[in-house]
């Protein structure tokens, strides 16, 4: 190696006595990987089929190449670590998606403690969680989808339950609340993270599930308005009501829907021999509040104040329970609870 000696001598001059000693030793010894004449073959060669003992790159075994080899080893280790990190990230993403499907928490959360302050039609929200689309739930484009964690989880679980039972289902969700609550365009309530609008499940003229990206309105016979041949899906919509009411963690208080669709759903439940106590609860929760929007194209779901928020969270709307946009402003000035809202365990007023 004629070029090595002059180079090494320059290194010797610049790196001091220890480098000089190492250099002298390396020059005196046979080169790594090139055994001297008469030397025994490597152990791996003596035992064919057996893995070599040391799989590390040559860079780590040899000191002859010094800095260059160390860099190569470092690079190999860095690549291994990067691969490992990427694997962990993929696994975390899979876990998160799976949690979301089952109703777990969402990454896009306000860090503060969740709190619903005030009444549904005059209040604020902190610690909101954002509802995002998942396999069985789609948020409508442009929807404001912040809510109390209990509401967000309830919607995810219910959508999952319907899909589990009927397959190929996606619950279309419209507005919940703004991130910090307060007045929301187009709604009277939806101010404290306890309200959500969800579209009805729809079937086509052949009875097959029909996915839409907008809320579809239905007449009293269950025919879609403006979507010829499409119909109200009694089975899936009842499954949604059932999932919401049977969810012990949910605390669903109201499901606003027109009288006609409420009657359809209760008739379907009776036909399917759903236990009477569940049908009674459904009858109590489903209602069509006076002077509110006509809920013929969506359910308005409201959850109760979580027990931990008592004192700050006001259960009922101050004047009227609806999410109507056209409520007279003067009605908000009244602090009297709405007379039209029954208790979930009471008798529905209409
Ligand atoms: Zn609403």
UniProtKB/TrEMBL annotation:
Alphabetical GO biological process terms: proteolysis
Pfam families tied to this protein: Peptidase_M74
Annotated EC: 3.4.-.-
Compositionally biased tracts (Low complexity): 31-49
Keyword Glycosyltransferase: no
PROSITE patterns: TAT
Enzymatic class: hydrolase
Source taxon at top rank: Bacteria
Record-level Gene Ontology MF annotations: metal ion binding; metallopeptidase activity; serine-type endopeptidase activity
Entry GO terms, CC: outer membrane-bounded periplasmic space
Keyword hit for Zinc: yes
Stretch list, region Disordered: 31-130, 325-350
Biased composition (Basic and acidic residues): 62-85, 93-114
Position of the signal peptide: 1-33
Keyword field: Hydrolase, Metal-binding, Metalloprotease, Periplasm, Protease, Signal, Zinc
Protein name: Exported murein endopeptidase
Organism, as annotated: Sorangium cellulosum (strain So ce56)
């Amino acid at each position: 190696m004629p070029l090595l000696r002059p180079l090494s001598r320059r290194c010797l001059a610049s790196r001091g006595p220890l480098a000089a000693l190492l250099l002298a030793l390396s020059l005196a010894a046979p080169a790594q990987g090139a055994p001297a004449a008469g030397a025994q073959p490597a152990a791996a060669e003596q035992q064919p089929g057996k893995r070599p003992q040391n799989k590390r790159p040559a860079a780590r075994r040899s000191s002859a190449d010094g800095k260059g080899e160390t860099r190569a080893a470092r690079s190999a280790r860095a690549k291994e670590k990067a691969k490992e990190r990427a694997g962990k990230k993929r696994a975390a993403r899979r876990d998160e998606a799976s949690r979301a499907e089952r109703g777990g928490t969402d990454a896009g959360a306000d860090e503060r403690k969740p709190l619903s302050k005030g009444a549904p039609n005059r209040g604020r929200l902190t610690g909101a969680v954002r509802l995002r689309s998942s396999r069985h739930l789609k948020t409508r484009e442009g929807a404001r989808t912040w809510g109390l964690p209990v509401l967000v989880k309830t919607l995810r679980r219910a959508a999952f339950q319907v899909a589990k039972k009927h397959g190929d289902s996606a619950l279309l969700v419209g507005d919940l609340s703004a991130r910090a609550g307060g007045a929301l365009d187009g709604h009277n309530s939806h101010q404290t993270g306890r309200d959500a609008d969800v579209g009805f499940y729809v079937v086509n003229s052949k009875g097959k599930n029909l996915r839409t990206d907008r809320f579809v309105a239905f007449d009293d016979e269950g025919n879609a308005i403006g979507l010829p041949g499409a119909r109200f899906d009694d089975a899936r919509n009842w499954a949604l009501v059932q999932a919401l009411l049977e969810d012990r963690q949910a605390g669903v208080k109201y499901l606003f829907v027109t009288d006609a669709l409420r009657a359809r759903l209760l008739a379907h439940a009776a036909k399917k021999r759903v236990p009477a106590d569940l049908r009674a609860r459904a009858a109590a929760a489903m209602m069509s509040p006076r002077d509110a929007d006509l809920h013929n194209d969506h359910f308005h779901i409201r959850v109760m104040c979580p027990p931990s928020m008592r004192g700050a969270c006001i259960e009922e709307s101050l004047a009227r329970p609806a999410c109507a946009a056209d409520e007279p402003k003067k009605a908000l000035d009244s602090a009297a609870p709405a007379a039209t809202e029954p208790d979930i365990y009471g008798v529905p007023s209409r």
